[in-house]
Amino acid sequence: MVFALIFLLGGYSTVTKADAQPQITHSSWTTADGVPGMVSALAQTPDGYLWLGTYEGLYRFDGVTFERIPPATGHPSGAIPVTAVFVTRNGKLFVGYAGRGGVEVYRNGHLIRASMPSAPGEVTSFAEDGDGAIFAIGGREPGALYRLWRGSWQRLGQNWGLPSETIWSVFVAKDGTVWVATAKHLFFLRSGAFRFEDTGEKLTDGAGFAQDRRGDIWISGPFGTRMVADYPHGHRRPRKPVFYSALAPVSRVALLFARDGALWGSTYTDGLFRIDSPGRTQPGRAAIQRFRTNDGMTSNQAVAILQDRENNIWAATENGLDQFRKADVEQVRLPPQTSPRGYKMAVDPSGAIYVASGKTLYRTDAGGDPVAVTAAKQPSALCSDPSGGIWMAVARRMIRFRGGRMIVNEVVPGPEPVTGCGVDRSGRLWLAQPNAGVLVLDRGTWRRFALPRMGQRPKDIIIDRAGNPVVMFSNRALLLVSADGAARYLDGDTIGVSGLTGVFPMDFGLLVAGGTGMALWNGHEFRRLSIDEYPWLRGVRGLVQTKDGETWMLNNKGVHRVASARFEAAFDHPHTALPHLTLGPEDGLSSHPTGEEGAQAAVAEDGRIWFMTRQNAVRVDPRRLISNPRPPSVLIRGLTANGRRYPDPRSVDLPAGTRNLSISYTALSLSVPSRVRFRYKLAGVDADWVDPGSRREAFYTNLGPGSYRFRVIASNDKGIWNRQGVELRIMIPPTFLQSALFQVLCFILAALLLWFLLDLRVRNLTRRMRIRVAERTNERERIARELHDTLLQGIHGLMLRFHIAAQSVGDDRVRRELEDAMNLADDVLIDGRDRVSALRAVDSSDLEGIVLALIERQDFPPDVRINFTIKGRVRSVEHDVVAEVGGIVGEALFNIRRHASASAVTVALTFNRFSMTLSIRDDGVGIPEDVLKAGGRSGHFGLIGMRERAKQLGARLWIRSGVWKGTEVRLIIPALVVSSRSKPIAPV
Fold first, then answer.
1. Under the phi-then-psi rule, with left for phi > 0, alpha for psi from -120 to 50, and beta for the rest, what region is 693?
2. Is 422 exposed, middle or buried (0-12, 13-18, 19+ CB in 10 A)?
3. Residues 321, 39: contact at Cβ < 8 Å?
4. What is the dihedral of CA 717, 723, 724, 729, to 10 degrees?
5. Do 636 and 728 contact (CB within 8 A), yes or no?
6. What is the DSSP annotation of 903-954?
């Protein structure tokens, strides 16, 4: 892009304020920026796209990218150039082709044929009347005017009152009148009529029309530019008979009235012209502003002109595309000369601006242009005098001006040049001389001010808000001088900012600017803002505050505006946001700050702010900044995945297995496209908004199947956001390996595998348990046999011998004691038999029967209530499980019978889906707490044995008891351990 300032080219030496042309900034795009060759037509659709008819076909432009739109299906081969584009009131885009390509209409992202029979060699122009009929000019063929009405084309010839002449332009006025310019005549067609009327005016080739805000029709061509009489209402003379002559030979003029009332025209031979207020501006060369190749235009051959919805003017040329906008930054019209040492500036107390350019000093009053005050040698410094006027340093003199007249001329002692000056509140003039120090003029006497450090090189003098001088040294240090002459030296370490570029008195302190940020001196300490937080504050060279509470700055990044209150608050809270406006090359600022000392910014009497740059002086009017309140239209240009592009998508169903994609988007704000900013978010992927800056494409990788929503928002060049943005739905179906069916199958397979492994494990455990239970059963049977064959038989034999012995004892008392002992031995023998029977009682898989048998065998007293219940779907319990459970039940019932003194015993057997629960409860005296904690009585192994049996089964065993609350033994066995078979039985 090439940015250039366009200014007047006229024959008059001055331009009055009434006739002054506005400052306009110019941008251009050429083939190097992607412009297709020879742009010949322009249009803008309601969505904001700029459409270009070119030699290479139809293109649309979003401010950054030129995108080609292919012709419709069935388009004639070779008919590539687009010579006309037009947008109807309902938003349809009509496209006219050369090479007898006819007309096509853009709908829903594609061009379709408009069924134009006998298409002319080229279609050069379109128009739409109040009834919706479309007029088309068929190139340079005589009488080639066409009308599309209700889907049918007709050629308008002599039956409509038109001669067989070349039709140059067709235009529909606001009242519905259709105007036609032929090669020789001017015609009009009243609204609703079917025959053109001849105005009697004679024309030449290449005329074009436009209508101003009052409704007057204007025409322009090689003959010049003028207003047309209101012929449809019987007038034969124009309302204002003004005539603007063509400044050079022109042909093929296209006219446009901009929204600000200015008349623009494109010519095929002499670029563009602009008349600021046609009808009010007196004719003459000064009234016409011209834009040609020497002003930066891509070509003098301009063939189309358009104003977009943001008020930018676009011109199509043979070599590219040109844009014109009103500029916020105005170049001050100074004589075309350079200043070897840069421009100097000072503002006097009245608000008049003095500018030293080259060897001339200029003065500008409110709203005026610079007027030369004096010519002298190159001024080296300018500064304001609070009592009125300014001081200027020239060679070895200090000259004071007031009202544009010299009133004081002082000789400066010594040969050293003056680089900075200032007048303090006592009226003393301070001078900075880098090689000699600081001089002070006090009541006509010069004296040297003693610096606190030797070797310092003062380069500028700044007067703070209290009227005291501040000396700025070239080694980046400051000297603050108080009213009594005391000086305070501040070096770079104390200031905390390196590479000082300026010192500025502020309402809230003394501001020091440098290459690493800013430091604010409040009289006691410095507070700082770093360029790490605010990079746009680097190297500020000029700074002023306005009465409206704004602070304006100038540095290499441009001109910046910030609210003074927020700027001051930022020094107390340096990490907070600091909203600001920046004006740069796109706004008319064509140069960078000068490196010279002295003021680089000032507020004039009329409120405009002046800035000095290396190439010129510029000014900004804060009250007339160009606004752009329209939020940009946000569009999705395309989505690319798997090598395929989906143009203008709203919803996309991608192939299964798609993992990577890119999304191109745009925001249609054409004023300054480089300042458009975006934010986007892909729901389900991005946790928050992504800020890509001005980048217009998003990339995503490793996406899985699912439904996604991509949303993008954007702001225009003035920071106005379109918060609604646009949304794109993306659907990625899963592959078979990503599908829910595959996942279910994997889950089922995993479950089956787990079941198989678990079953295998259970079978292995069951087999091992059976072996161990069989071993234990055999051992129990062996023990039972041993007990029966040895211990019980031996006891029985002893009892017989004791019985014989007791019969032979004559002492009744001794005999009774022996009989009591034998009765006790009988009880022991009976108990032993019960134990032996219990050892053999588990030889069954009928757990119910075993439990009933164990209850019966205990022979509880008749007054003890016995309850036995079975719940659930009864399973057939494995033999080895019955053996262990029977042992636990037997031990529990034995303990209840012998020790509990219970009146009720409840045995419950519950079969659940995943477990079997056995509960044995009594209401007896319970087990002492110390016995429970110890796990059993010393020398007794009943409780210990029960826990060991439960552990062997992989079951959980609880024994809960309390004094006079009874005891509960609860055993829970996993179902897989019990059995895999089941049988329904009725509860007992």
1. left
2. buried
3. yes
4. 90
5. yes
6. SEEEEEEEE-SSEEEEEEEE-SS---HHHHHHTS-TT--HHHHHHHHHHHHT
Report yes or no: 29 and 1 within 8 Å, Cβ to Cβ.
Answer: yes
Place of tokens 């020497």: 294
**DSSP character for 875?**
-
- Please report, for the chain, how many H helices and E strands are present, in that order: 10, 71
**Dist. CA 729–CA 826, nearest whole Å:** 94
Computed on alpha carbons and rounded to an integer, the radius of gyration of the chain in Å comes to 53
Cα separation of 444 and 463, whole Å?
A: 20
% pLDDT > 90, the chain: 61
- For 921, phi then psi, to 5°, come to -125, 150
pLDDT digits (tens, 9 = 90+) for 689-748: 999 999 999 999 999 999 999 999 999 999 999 999 999 999 999 988 888 888 899 999
Q: Are 986 and 946 in contact (CB under 8 A)?
A: no
Per-residue model confidence (pLDDT) at position 536: 95
Q: What sign for the dihedral angle of Cα 122, 127, 129, 133?
A: positive
Q: Report d(CA 911, CA 913) in Å as an integer.
A: 7
Structure tokens at 201: 């005016």
For position 938, what pLDDT does the model report? 72
Alpha carbon distances (Å) from 493 to 433, 476, 537 = 24, 10, 19
Per DSSP, 252 falls in state S
Quick one: which H or E segment has residue 880? helix 879-895
- Distance (Å, rounded) from C-alpha 643 to C-alpha 660? 10
Assigned token pair, 430: 């301070």
Among 840, 705, 853, 826, smallest CA distance to 784 is for 840
Extract the tokens encoding 431: 């001078």
- Phi and psi based region of residue 617 (left: phi greater than 0; alpha: psi -120 to 50; beta: remaining): beta
- Structure tokens belonging to residue 277: 């207020």
Q: Which residues pair with 869 in a beta bridge?
A: 908
Q: How confident is the model at residue 798, as a pLDDT?
A: 72
Q: What is the pTM of this model?
A: 0.73
| Cα–Cα distance list, 281 to 207, 243, 254, 256 (Å) | 22, 11, 21, 17
Q: How far is CA 969 from CA 231, 334, 429, 883, 965, in A?
A: 117, 111, 110, 17, 13
Confidence check: pLDDT of 361 > 60: yes
Rounded to the nearest 5 percent, the helix, strand and coil shares of the chain are: 20, 40, 40
Neighbours of 220 (CB within 10 A): 25
CB 392 within 8 A of CB 370: no
Angle formed by the axes of helices 942-953 and 740-786, nearest 10°:
140
Q: Say how far apart CA 559 and CA 328 lie, in whole Å.
A: 10
Q: Which residues have C-beta within 8 Å of that of residue 873, sequence separation ≥ 6? A: 911, 982, 983, 984
**Contact indicator for 433, 461 with CB cutoff of 8 Å:** no
Q: In the block, which residue shows the tokens 């012998």? A: 898
Question: 600, 612 in Cβ contact below 8 A?
Answer: yes
* Tens digits of residue pLDDT in 846-868: 778 888 888 887 878 888 899 99
d(CA 763, CA 356): 106
Distances (CA, A) of 988 to 440, 910, 913, 985: 123, 11, 19, 9
β-pairing, 706-715 vs 353-357, is unpaired
Residue in this structure with the two tokens 């040895």, named with its chain if needed: 790
Sheet hosting strand 390-394, strand order edge to edge: 379-384, 390-394, 397-402, 405-411
Q: 245-248: long-range contacts (C-beta < 8 A, 24 or more apart)?
A: 245/283, 246/222, 246/270, 247/273, 247/285, 247/288, 247/290
Q: How far are the Cα atoms of 69, 768, 771, 979 from residue 765, in angstroms, in the given order?
A: 76, 5, 10, 12
DSSP letter, residue 378: P
Give the strand order in the sheet containing 633-641: 644-647, 633-641, 661-668, 697-700
